[in-house]
Amino acid sequence: MTSIHPTALVRCQGTAGATISLLEPFSIIEADVKIGDGTTIASHVLIANGARIGKNCKIHKGAVIATIPQDLKFGFEETTFEIAIIPLFASSARSIAARASAARASLVPTAC
Known about the structure:
mainly beta; 10% helix; 20% strand
């Protein structure tokens, strides 16, 4: 069941999961965003264009996701930022980085 607070601004058109658990007050979701089912988004969150969020994730209060980097070499090319559920078991940071490198995406484990 989707629960979207009236003060939340959702610009995405059919790209959010069919059942976002909760979208709290004053959060903003821009147009080019994909959000998996069961994801919870707390208040005052900005999810910018290019964000790809997996199923059953929890985005905490005040998070800013997928905005342009503060890197002087960034040339405003089209990019994406992906958050996925990764089973960690006994993984080390190196193996997570290797998986992210192999997938050519930024993967953020939900257990971090």
